[in-house]
Amino acid sequence: MKVLVVGGGGREHAICWKLSASTKVDQIFCTPGNGGTANCSKTKNVAIDAMDFAQLISFSHGEKIDLVVIGPDNPLAGGIVDAMEEAGLTVFGPTKAQAKLEWSKAYAKDVLTKLNITTAQFAVASSQQTAEAIVKANSWARVIKVDGLALGKGVFVCDDQEACLEALDIVFKSGKFSDKKVVIEEKLIGEEISLLTLCDGKTIVPLLPCQDHKRRFDDDRGPNTGGMGAYAPVQLYERNKAAIENKILVPLQKALSEGKFSFKGVLYIGILMHQDQTKKDKLEPYVLEFNARFGDPETQTILPLLQSDLYDALYACTNGTLAPNQMQWSKQAACCVIAAARDYPQSSSKGEMLQLPQTTDSTLIFHAGTKLTDDGQLVTDGGRIFAAVGIAENMAAARENAYKFLSQLQNENINYRSDIAKRETWQSK
Protein backbone atom coordinates (compact mmCIF):
# COMPACT_ATOMS: atom_id res chain seq x y z
CA MET A 1 0.00 0.00 0.00
CA LYS A 2 1.04 3.59 -0.65
CA VAL A 3 0.26 6.30 1.90
CA LEU A 4 0.43 10.08 1.59
CA VAL A 5 0.86 11.99 4.88
CA VAL A 6 0.04 15.68 4.51
CA GLY A 7 2.02 18.01 6.78
CA GLY A 8 5.53 18.76 7.92
CA GLY A 9 5.72 18.78 11.72
CA GLY A 10 6.61 16.46 14.56
CA ARG A 11 3.16 14.91 14.46
CA GLU A 12 3.63 13.94 10.83
CA HIS A 13 7.10 12.50 11.49
CA ALA A 14 5.62 10.32 14.24
CA ILE A 15 2.78 9.19 11.96
CA CYS A 16 5.21 8.31 9.15
CA TRP A 17 7.45 6.47 11.62
CA LYS A 18 4.57 4.38 12.96
CA LEU A 19 3.07 3.69 9.54
CA SER A 20 6.47 2.50 8.31
CA ALA A 21 6.29 -0.32 10.88
CA SER A 22 3.20 -1.76 9.16
CA THR A 23 3.83 -4.76 6.94
CA LYS A 24 0.97 -3.53 4.75
CA VAL A 25 2.65 -0.21 3.94
CA ASP A 26 5.20 -0.29 1.14
CA GLN A 27 5.83 3.42 0.59
CA ILE A 28 5.03 6.69 2.35
CA PHE A 29 5.13 10.20 0.89
CA CYS A 30 5.18 13.19 3.24
CA THR A 31 4.21 16.63 1.93
CA PRO A 32 6.15 18.77 2.56
CA GLY A 33 7.83 16.80 5.38
CA ASN A 34 10.91 17.87 7.35
CA GLY A 35 14.48 16.83 8.06
CA GLY A 36 13.30 13.82 10.04
CA THR A 37 10.79 12.44 7.56
CA ALA A 38 13.51 12.78 4.89
CA ASN A 39 15.37 9.95 6.64
CA CYS A 40 12.37 7.96 7.90
CA SER A 41 12.00 4.34 6.75
CA LYS A 42 9.89 3.87 3.59
CA THR A 43 9.32 7.65 3.49
CA LYS A 44 10.05 10.25 0.83
CA ASN A 45 9.48 13.99 1.15
CA VAL A 46 7.61 15.72 -1.66
CA ALA A 47 7.71 19.51 -1.95
CA ILE A 48 3.97 20.19 -2.08
CA ASP A 49 2.39 22.67 0.31
CA ALA A 50 -0.33 21.27 2.57
CA MET A 51 -2.77 23.89 1.26
CA ASP A 52 -2.19 23.12 -2.43
CA PHE A 53 -5.17 20.79 -2.78
CA ALA A 54 -5.07 20.53 -6.58
CA GLN A 55 -1.42 19.47 -6.65
CA LEU A 56 -1.90 17.03 -3.77
CA ILE A 57 -4.82 15.42 -5.59
CA SER A 58 -2.88 15.22 -8.85
CA PHE A 59 0.11 13.66 -7.06
CA SER A 60 -2.12 11.13 -5.27
CA HIS A 61 -3.70 10.00 -8.53
CA GLY A 62 -0.32 9.81 -10.24
CA GLU A 63 1.20 7.66 -7.50
CA LYS A 64 -1.98 5.60 -7.01
CA ILE A 65 -2.12 6.45 -3.30
CA ASP A 66 -4.21 4.00 -1.25
CA LEU A 67 -4.67 6.21 1.83
CA VAL A 68 -4.19 9.93 2.46
CA VAL A 69 -3.65 10.99 6.10
CA ILE A 70 -4.20 14.67 6.89
CA GLY A 71 -2.07 16.02 9.73
CA PRO A 72 -2.55 19.81 10.24
CA ASP A 73 -5.69 21.77 11.06
CA ASN A 74 -5.54 24.39 8.28
CA PRO A 75 -6.14 22.06 5.31
CA LEU A 76 -8.94 20.35 7.23
CA ALA A 77 -10.59 23.72 7.86
CA GLY A 78 -10.08 24.51 4.18
CA GLY A 79 -11.96 21.41 3.07
CA ILE A 80 -9.14 19.18 1.85
CA VAL A 81 -11.02 15.99 2.74
CA ASP A 82 -14.09 17.13 0.80
CA ALA A 83 -11.95 17.92 -2.25
CA MET A 84 -10.01 14.66 -2.13
CA GLU A 85 -13.05 12.46 -1.58
CA GLU A 86 -14.81 14.18 -4.46
CA ALA A 87 -11.75 13.27 -6.55
CA GLY A 88 -12.17 9.61 -5.60
CA LEU A 89 -9.39 9.32 -2.99
CA THR A 90 -9.56 7.47 0.32
CA VAL A 91 -8.81 10.01 3.07
CA PHE A 92 -8.38 9.79 6.83
CA GLY A 93 -9.75 12.96 8.37
CA PRO A 94 -12.97 14.92 8.89
CA THR A 95 -14.80 16.97 6.29
CA LYS A 96 -14.78 20.75 6.55
CA ALA A 97 -18.17 20.70 8.28
CA GLN A 98 -17.01 18.08 10.78
CA ALA A 99 -13.71 19.90 11.40
CA LYS A 100 -15.69 22.99 12.44
CA LEU A 101 -15.43 21.54 15.94
CA GLU A 102 -11.87 22.87 15.85
CA TRP A 103 -11.98 25.86 13.53
CA SER A 104 -14.84 27.45 15.47
CA LYS A 105 -14.72 27.30 19.27
CA ALA A 106 -18.16 28.88 19.44
CA TYR A 107 -19.56 26.06 17.30
CA ALA A 108 -17.86 23.46 19.50
CA LYS A 109 -19.47 25.05 22.56
CA ASP A 110 -22.89 24.81 20.92
CA VAL A 111 -22.33 21.10 20.17
CA LEU A 112 -21.25 20.42 23.75
CA THR A 113 -24.33 22.22 25.05
CA LYS A 114 -26.69 20.30 22.74
CA LEU A 115 -25.13 16.95 23.72
CA ASN A 116 -25.33 17.88 27.41
CA ILE A 117 -21.58 17.44 27.92
CA THR A 118 -20.20 19.56 30.74
CA THR A 119 -18.12 22.54 29.64
CA ALA A 120 -17.11 25.88 31.12
CA GLN A 121 -19.65 28.71 31.28
CA PHE A 122 -19.17 30.92 28.23
CA ALA A 123 -20.28 33.85 26.10
CA VAL A 124 -19.49 34.80 22.50
CA ALA A 125 -18.61 38.27 21.20
CA SER A 126 -17.83 39.58 17.72
CA SER A 127 -16.59 43.03 18.74
CA GLN A 128 -14.18 44.36 21.31
CA GLN A 129 -16.86 46.56 22.82
CA THR A 130 -19.19 43.62 23.42
CA ALA A 131 -16.37 41.43 24.73
CA GLU A 132 -15.22 44.11 27.19
CA ALA A 133 -18.78 44.54 28.46
CA ILE A 134 -19.06 40.80 29.11
CA VAL A 135 -15.74 40.75 30.99
CA LYS A 136 -16.67 43.76 33.12
CA ALA A 137 -20.11 42.38 33.97
CA ASN A 138 -19.07 38.82 34.88
CA SER A 139 -16.47 37.89 37.48
CA TRP A 140 -16.28 34.36 36.01
CA ALA A 141 -15.15 35.64 32.59
CA ARG A 142 -11.39 35.18 32.78
CA VAL A 143 -10.44 33.16 29.68
CA ILE A 144 -10.28 34.71 26.21
CA LYS A 145 -10.21 32.40 23.16
CA VAL A 146 -9.96 33.42 19.53
CA ASP A 147 -12.83 31.62 17.83
CA GLY A 148 -10.86 30.37 14.83
CA LEU A 149 -7.53 28.62 14.29
CA ALA A 150 -4.57 30.41 15.88
CA LEU A 151 -1.69 27.86 15.85
CA GLY A 152 -2.17 27.17 19.56
CA LYS A 153 -1.56 30.84 20.42
CA GLY A 154 -5.10 32.21 20.58
CA VAL A 155 -5.95 31.36 24.20
CA PHE A 156 -5.40 33.79 27.07
CA VAL A 157 -5.90 32.49 30.62
CA CYS A 158 -6.16 35.59 32.80
CA ASP A 159 -6.07 36.22 36.54
CA ASP A 160 -8.13 39.41 36.61
CA GLN A 161 -10.28 41.79 34.61
CA GLU A 162 -7.32 43.97 33.61
CA ALA A 163 -5.48 41.02 32.05
CA CYS A 164 -8.64 40.08 30.13
CA LEU A 165 -8.92 43.58 28.70
CA GLU A 166 -5.26 43.49 27.67
CA ALA A 167 -5.87 40.14 25.94
CA LEU A 168 -8.82 41.61 24.05
CA ASP A 169 -6.58 44.48 22.90
CA ILE A 170 -4.15 41.92 21.51
CA VAL A 171 -6.90 40.01 19.70
CA PHE A 172 -8.69 43.01 18.20
CA LYS A 173 -5.90 45.55 17.68
CA SER A 174 -2.50 43.86 17.36
CA GLY A 175 -3.05 42.42 13.89
CA LYS A 176 -1.87 38.99 15.08
CA PHE A 177 -5.28 37.40 14.54
CA SER A 178 -7.46 37.62 11.46
CA ASP A 179 -10.45 36.24 13.39
CA LYS A 180 -12.20 38.94 15.43
CA LYS A 181 -14.71 36.68 17.13
CA VAL A 182 -13.95 35.48 20.66
CA VAL A 183 -15.29 32.97 23.13
CA ILE A 184 -15.12 34.23 26.72
CA GLU A 185 -15.04 31.48 29.31
CA GLU A 186 -15.15 30.76 32.97
CA LYS A 187 -11.69 30.02 34.39
CA LEU A 188 -11.61 26.47 35.72
CA ILE A 189 -8.98 25.19 38.11
CA GLY A 190 -7.50 21.72 37.70
CA GLU A 191 -5.30 19.45 35.63
CA GLU A 192 -5.81 18.84 31.93
CA ILE A 193 -5.98 15.52 30.09
CA SER A 194 -5.60 15.09 26.34
CA LEU A 195 -7.85 12.27 25.15
CA LEU A 196 -7.49 11.48 21.47
CA THR A 197 -10.11 9.21 19.95
CA LEU A 198 -10.56 7.54 16.58
CA CYS A 199 -13.94 7.69 14.92
CA ASP A 200 -15.34 6.04 11.78
CA GLY A 201 -18.66 7.88 11.77
CA LYS A 202 -20.48 5.45 14.02
CA THR A 203 -17.94 4.15 16.58
CA ILE A 204 -15.63 6.12 18.84
CA VAL A 205 -12.49 4.46 20.26
CA PRO A 206 -10.31 6.25 22.83
CA LEU A 207 -6.55 6.17 22.39
CA LEU A 208 -4.04 6.26 25.24
CA PRO A 209 -4.69 9.40 27.34
CA CYS A 210 -1.81 11.79 27.94
CA GLN A 211 -1.13 15.16 29.52
CA ASP A 212 0.18 18.11 27.52
CA HIS A 213 2.21 21.08 28.83
CA LYS A 214 1.14 24.16 26.88
CA ARG A 215 2.91 26.98 28.71
CA ARG A 216 6.37 27.95 27.49
CA PHE A 217 8.32 27.78 30.75
CA ASP A 218 8.68 25.60 33.84
CA ASP A 219 5.86 25.54 36.42
CA ASP A 220 3.37 26.50 33.69
CA ARG A 221 4.65 30.05 33.36
CA GLY A 222 4.81 32.16 30.23
CA PRO A 223 2.61 32.28 27.13
CA ASN A 224 0.63 29.41 25.69
CA THR A 225 2.37 27.53 22.88
CA GLY A 226 1.59 24.70 20.50
CA GLY A 227 2.81 22.37 23.26
CA MET A 228 6.14 22.01 25.09
CA GLY A 229 5.88 18.34 26.03
CA ALA A 230 3.57 15.55 27.11
CA TYR A 231 3.55 12.21 28.86
CA ALA A 232 1.53 9.00 28.93
CA PRO A 233 -0.08 7.18 30.63
CA VAL A 234 -1.77 9.53 33.12
CA GLN A 235 -2.78 8.43 36.61
CA LEU A 236 -5.33 11.25 36.79
CA TYR A 237 -7.24 9.66 33.91
CA GLU A 238 -7.16 6.20 35.44
CA ARG A 239 -8.52 7.52 38.75
CA ASN A 240 -11.38 9.30 36.96
CA LYS A 241 -11.92 6.94 34.04
CA ALA A 242 -15.51 6.03 34.90
CA ALA A 243 -16.62 9.66 35.16
CA ILE A 244 -14.87 10.62 31.91
CA GLU A 245 -16.43 7.72 30.04
CA ASN A 246 -19.93 8.28 31.43
CA LYS A 247 -20.01 12.06 31.02
CA ILE A 248 -18.10 12.47 27.77
CA LEU A 249 -17.54 9.30 25.74
CA VAL A 250 -20.96 7.72 26.32
CA PRO A 251 -22.89 10.86 25.18
CA LEU A 252 -20.65 11.16 22.10
CA GLN A 253 -21.15 7.49 21.21
CA LYS A 254 -24.91 7.80 21.74
CA ALA A 255 -25.06 10.90 19.51
CA LEU A 256 -23.09 9.09 16.78
CA SER A 257 -25.35 6.04 16.96
CA GLU A 258 -28.49 8.18 16.77
CA GLY A 259 -27.19 10.31 13.91
CA LYS A 260 -27.16 13.48 16.02
CA PHE A 261 -23.41 13.88 15.66
CA SER A 262 -21.25 13.30 12.59
CA PHE A 263 -17.49 12.76 12.64
CA LYS A 264 -14.71 10.61 11.25
CA GLY A 265 -10.98 10.84 11.85
CA VAL A 266 -9.30 11.88 15.10
CA LEU A 267 -11.49 13.67 17.61
CA TYR A 268 -9.16 15.21 20.18
CA ILE A 269 -10.94 15.97 23.45
CA GLY A 270 -9.26 18.46 25.77
CA ILE A 271 -10.48 17.65 29.28
CA LEU A 272 -10.01 19.54 32.52
CA MET A 273 -10.58 17.76 35.81
CA HIS A 274 -12.18 20.60 37.74
CA GLN A 275 -12.42 20.67 41.51
CA ASP A 276 -15.66 22.31 42.54
CA GLN A 277 -15.07 24.36 45.69
CA THR A 278 -18.32 23.02 47.16
CA LYS A 279 -17.20 19.41 46.55
CA LYS A 280 -13.53 19.51 47.47
CA ASP A 281 -13.08 15.76 47.41
CA LYS A 282 -14.57 15.29 43.97
CA LEU A 283 -13.21 16.09 40.49
CA GLU A 284 -15.56 16.68 37.57
CA PRO A 285 -14.53 16.29 33.92
CA TYR A 286 -15.14 19.39 31.78
CA VAL A 287 -14.48 19.52 28.03
CA LEU A 288 -12.29 22.54 27.28
CA GLU A 289 -11.99 22.07 23.52
CA PHE A 290 -12.19 19.77 20.55
CA ASN A 291 -9.51 19.36 17.91
CA ALA A 292 -10.23 17.55 14.66
CA ARG A 293 -6.82 15.90 14.15
CA PHE A 294 -3.91 14.26 15.93
CA GLY A 295 -2.46 16.49 18.63
CA ASP A 296 1.12 17.72 18.73
CA PRO A 297 3.04 16.71 20.89
CA GLU A 298 0.49 14.11 22.00
CA THR A 299 1.02 12.06 18.83
CA GLN A 300 4.78 11.87 19.40
CA THR A 301 4.04 10.70 22.96
CA ILE A 302 1.48 7.95 22.42
CA LEU A 303 2.41 6.39 19.06
CA PRO A 304 5.65 4.86 20.48
CA LEU A 305 3.40 2.98 22.92
CA LEU A 306 1.00 1.68 20.24
CA GLN A 307 1.48 -2.05 19.66
CA SER A 308 -1.16 -2.61 16.99
CA ASP A 309 -1.05 -1.58 13.32
CA LEU A 310 -1.73 2.14 12.81
CA TYR A 311 -2.50 1.69 9.11
CA ASP A 312 -5.29 -0.80 9.88
CA ALA A 313 -6.89 1.59 12.37
CA LEU A 314 -6.73 4.65 10.12
CA TYR A 315 -8.06 2.76 7.11
CA ALA A 316 -10.91 1.33 9.22
CA CYS A 317 -11.99 4.89 10.01
CA THR A 318 -12.45 5.60 6.30
CA ASN A 319 -14.84 2.69 5.62
CA GLY A 320 -16.80 2.38 8.86
CA THR A 321 -15.15 -0.80 10.14
CA LEU A 322 -13.40 0.52 13.28
CA ALA A 323 -13.58 -2.07 16.07
CA PRO A 324 -13.85 -1.16 19.78
CA ASN A 325 -10.74 -3.28 20.46
CA GLN A 326 -8.83 -1.97 17.43
CA MET A 327 -5.94 -0.48 19.42
CA GLN A 328 -3.52 -2.31 21.73
CA TRP A 329 -1.09 -0.43 23.93
CA SER A 330 2.18 -1.12 25.72
CA LYS A 331 2.26 -0.93 29.52
CA GLN A 332 5.39 1.23 29.33
CA ALA A 333 5.59 4.99 29.91
CA ALA A 334 6.61 7.76 27.52
CA CYS A 335 7.90 11.26 28.28
CA CYS A 336 8.07 13.69 25.34
CA VAL A 337 10.01 16.97 25.68
CA ILE A 338 9.96 19.65 22.99
CA ALA A 339 13.23 21.38 22.15
CA ALA A 340 12.35 24.84 20.85
CA ALA A 341 14.01 27.95 19.50
CA ARG A 342 15.20 30.13 22.37
CA ASP A 343 12.67 32.91 21.69
CA TYR A 344 9.72 30.69 20.76
CA PRO A 345 6.78 31.45 20.55
CA GLN A 346 7.73 35.07 19.79
CA SER A 347 10.10 33.99 17.02
CA SER A 348 11.53 30.88 15.37
CA SER A 349 14.93 29.66 14.19
CA LYS A 350 15.85 29.38 10.52
CA GLY A 351 18.94 27.93 8.86
CA GLU A 352 21.02 27.23 11.95
CA MET A 353 23.17 24.09 11.73
CA LEU A 354 21.85 21.31 13.94
CA GLN A 355 23.76 18.36 15.35
CA LEU A 356 21.66 15.91 17.33
CA PRO A 357 22.85 13.33 19.87
CA GLN A 358 22.54 9.64 19.04
CA THR A 359 19.31 7.95 20.08
CA THR A 360 19.27 4.68 22.03
CA ASP A 361 16.82 1.80 22.49
CA SER A 362 15.07 3.93 25.12
CA THR A 363 14.92 7.23 23.22
CA LEU A 364 13.28 8.48 20.04
CA ILE A 365 13.46 11.78 18.23
CA PHE A 366 10.74 13.29 16.06
CA HIS A 367 11.67 16.31 13.96
CA ALA A 368 9.40 19.33 13.58
CA GLY A 369 11.15 22.59 12.70
CA THR A 370 14.02 21.10 10.71
CA LYS A 371 14.94 20.63 7.06
CA LEU A 372 17.77 19.30 4.95
CA THR A 373 19.73 21.74 2.79
CA ASP A 374 20.57 20.93 -0.81
CA ASP A 375 23.92 19.52 0.33
CA GLY A 376 22.30 17.32 2.98
CA GLN A 377 22.96 19.42 6.09
CA LEU A 378 20.33 19.43 8.86
CA VAL A 379 19.25 22.95 9.83
CA THR A 380 16.56 24.54 11.96
CA ASP A 381 13.34 25.67 10.30
CA GLY A 382 10.73 26.60 12.88
CA GLY A 383 9.79 27.38 16.46
CA ARG A 384 9.52 23.90 17.90
CA ILE A 385 12.59 22.14 16.54
CA PHE A 386 12.18 18.51 17.63
CA ALA A 387 10.71 16.21 20.26
CA ALA A 388 12.86 13.95 22.43
CA VAL A 389 10.88 10.95 23.70
CA GLY A 390 12.06 8.73 26.53
CA ILE A 391 10.53 5.24 26.84
CA ALA A 392 10.79 3.03 29.95
CA GLU A 393 8.90 0.70 32.27
CA ASN A 394 7.88 3.61 34.52
CA MET A 395 7.50 7.37 34.20
CA ALA A 396 10.52 8.31 36.30
CA ALA A 397 12.83 6.28 34.06
CA ALA A 398 11.15 7.51 30.86
CA ARG A 399 11.63 11.09 32.01
CA GLU A 400 15.27 10.42 32.87
CA ASN A 401 15.85 8.94 29.40
CA ALA A 402 14.38 11.96 27.63
CA TYR A 403 16.38 14.49 29.63
CA LYS A 404 19.60 12.50 29.42
CA PHE A 405 19.31 12.69 25.64
CA LEU A 406 18.63 16.43 25.73
CA SER A 407 21.55 17.09 28.11
CA GLN A 408 23.88 16.07 25.28
CA LEU A 409 22.51 18.78 22.96
CA GLN A 410 25.07 21.50 22.34
CA ASN A 411 23.17 24.50 21.04
CA GLU A 412 22.61 27.59 23.18
CA ASN A 413 19.86 28.81 20.87
CA ILE A 414 17.63 25.83 21.64
CA ASN A 415 16.07 25.21 25.04
CA TYR A 416 13.28 23.23 26.67
CA ARG A 417 11.22 22.92 29.81
CA SER A 418 12.85 20.91 32.58
CA ASP A 419 9.65 19.79 34.32
CA ILE A 420 7.75 17.67 31.78
CA ALA A 421 6.09 14.75 33.62
CA LYS A 422 7.54 15.97 36.92
CA ARG A 423 4.05 16.10 38.41
CA GLU A 424 3.38 12.50 37.40
CA THR A 425 6.64 11.16 38.85
CA TRP A 426 6.08 13.11 42.07
CA GLN A 427 2.58 11.67 42.41
CA SER A 428 3.97 8.17 41.80
CA LYS A 429 6.18 8.31 44.91
Question: What key attributes describe this structure?
Answer:
24 strands; alpha+beta; 429 residues; Rossmann fold; 6-stranded antiparallel β-sheet
Topology (SSEs and partners):
Elements: E1 2-7, H1 10-19, E2 27-32, E3 43-45, H2 53-63, E4 67-70, H3 73-77, H4 80-86, E5 91-92, H5 100-103, H6 105-114, E6 122-125, H7 128-137, E7 141-146, E8 155-157, H8 161-173, E9 182-186, E10 190-200, E11 204-206, E12 211-212, E13 215-217, E14 221-224, E15 229-232, H9 235-239, H10 241-257, E16 264-275, E17 283-291, H11 298-302, H12 310-319, E18 333-341, E19 349-353, E20 363-367, E21 370-372, E22 378-382, E23 384-392, H13 395-407, E24 414-415, H14 422-428
Parallel strand pairs: 1-2, 1-4, 2-3, 4-5
Antiparallel strand pairs: 6-9, 7-8, 7-9, 10-11, 10-16, 12-15, 13-14, 15-18, 16-17, 18-23, 18-24, 19-22, 20-23, 21-22
How many helices?
14
- The number of E-state strands comes to 24
Largest sheet: 6 strands, antiparallel
Poorly predicted ranges (pLDDT <50, ≥5 residues)? none
Helix content: 25-40%
What is the rounded Rg? 21 Å
Q: Which secondary-structure class do the elements indicate?
A: alpha+beta
* Average pLDDT number: 95
CATH superfamily of the largest domain: ATP-grasp fold, B domain
Brief digest:
The protein is of the alpha+beta class.
Written account of the structure:
By secondary structure, this protein is an alpha+beta fold. It folds into four domains: 2-95, Rossmann fold, CATH 3.40.50.20; 121-186, 2-Layer Sandwich (Dna Ligase, domain 1); 190-319, ATP-grasp fold, B domain (D-amino Acid Aminotransferase, Chain A, domain 1, 2-Layer Sandwich), CATH 3.30.470.20; 333-428, Phosphoribosylglycinamide synthetase, C-terminal domain (Glycinamide Ribonucleotide Synthetase, Chain A, domain 4, Alpha-Beta Complex), CATH 3.90.600. The chain is 30% helix and 29% strand. The chain has 14 helices and 24 strands. The protein has helices spanning 10-19, 53-63, 73-77, 80-86, 100-103, 105-114, 128-137, 161-173, 235-239, 241-257, 298-302, 310-319, 395-407, 422-428; strands at 2-7, 27-32, 43-45, 67-70, 91-92, 122-125, 141-146, 155-157, 182-186, 190-200, 204-206, 211-212, 215-217, 221-224, 229-232, 264-275, 283-291, 333-341, 349-353, 363-367, 370-372, 378-382, 384-392, 414-415. The strands form six sheets. Strands 12, 15, 18, 20, 23 and 24 form a six-stranded antiparallel β-sheet that branches. It has a five-stranded parallel β-sheet with strand order 3-2-1-4-5, with helices on both faces. Strand 7 (141-146) and strand 8 form a beta hairpin. The N and C termini lie far apart (46 Å). 49% of the residues are buried. The model has no long low-confidence stretch (mean pLDDT 95).
